[in-house]
Amino acid sequence: RPVLTGVMTVMLLSMAGIPLTAGFITKFFAVVAAVDGQQWFLAAMIILGSAIGLFYYLRVMLTLFKRPTRTIEFDALGEWGIQAGGLMVILVTLIVLYVGILPNDFIGWATQAIIW
Question: What is the tens place of the pLDDT at every residue in 57-79?
Answer without folding.
Answer: 999 999 888 877 776 666 555 56
